[in-house]
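Structural prep section.
Before we set up the soaks we want a predicted structure of the protein with cytidine-5'-triphosphate in place, mainly to decide which crystallisation condition to try first. Input record follows.
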Amino acid sequence: MLADKRILLIISGGIAAYKSPDLVRRLRERGARVRCLLTEGGSQFVTSLALGAVSEDKVYQNIFSLTDENEMGHIRLSREADVVLVAPATANILAKMAQGIADDLATTALLATDKPVLVAPAMNVRMWGNPATQDNIKTLSRRGVGFIGPDEGDMACGEFGLGRMSDPNDIADALEDFFRKGQPLDGTRALVTSGPTVEAIDPVRYLANRSSGKQGHAIAAALAGLGSATTLISGPSHQPDPPGVDIVRVESAAQMLDACAKALPVDIAVCAAAVSDWRVEAQAGEKIKKTGSRKTPTLKLVENPDILASLSQAGNKRPRLVVGFAAETENVTANAQAKRSKKGCDWIVANDVSAGTGTFAGDDNTVHLITKDGVEDWPKMTKTAVAGRLADRIAEALGGNT
Ligand code: CTP
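Run finished without errors. Recording the tokens verbatim:
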């Protein structure tokens, strides 16, 4: 959900600055690009070397450094970000921000920025409670500065109370909430199935298919990017985890169905998984041996539950919009239209997966969107682009913020 968000992280001089490399890692794990700006005080608690290593970027410190000004002036620094985050924010930097003081690179960037500013205060409980600090907080809140924490707890100074910097994961959550607000799918929940399912024959062997999970994972990322709280239920796949998405890993169709049922209620369900149609009726508890067997074993297959159909027919738990995929090798749109009415879903994304199209495991997809109003032929595009366009269509269909 923080994918490609640019965060200017200002680290001011409090003991909680020791948590900032961890904060950088938590933000980057969720896809953010983090640039660090370290105050003189901050540099007493954490080194620019550590911050540079975890952010994999230059750390900015000195307003009078000609090199910094040549490479990236303080005005550009403050504007080439989607949000400015001050963490930890000391009582001192909050006071300077409230007064408009610009006596170092951090405060100059804060005064020059036209981007939203969020602060995660960290200070002694009495400093937090001091009327001067409380007045500054009111001033800053009135001007639109967002506050994350502080939390209550034991402090480095030995006292207990309000003033502890929020946990880095909670700060990252707060940033995700911040970016979700105003997004077209803010307030919705989505589930996406992705990848193949594998059905065990015995503890060693299984039935599987060629699905890579690329398309489903990209859809989960796109829905989360539009602000939907998204759960991705994935069969075995080598795709990287999409940032900002809850991931449930499963193997068999039965496990996938179970995970989908647990994820309900949701507003949106997209079934992109290539679910195995059959499973072996009686899984062998031990490896089936070749030596000593009297004849080649015969596998008896039974049909798996249809996850898309069961979500489409989930009664009062039915998602508002259910989207299926149709993997076809012939009569693509006609077969997909028949699938739409048979399973009872709202839309079907039909794709040709015949040999030679390279759809399975490839980066591109040529799809047809089938709705009650007819068939839309989309040009060939990357799976990421298909995901983005589908997510936009879903947001339109659900009518913006809910
Ligand atoms: N699907 C599902 N559960 C199954 C089988 C399929 O949820 N047991 C979903 C897929 O995720 C996809 C849609 O149903 O969204 C169509 O899958 P597809 O493999 O194209 O069709 P099948 O229903 O398996 O029919 P057929 O194999 O006859 O083409």
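Observations: The chain has two domains: 6-180, 189-397.
Flagged for discussion at group meeting.
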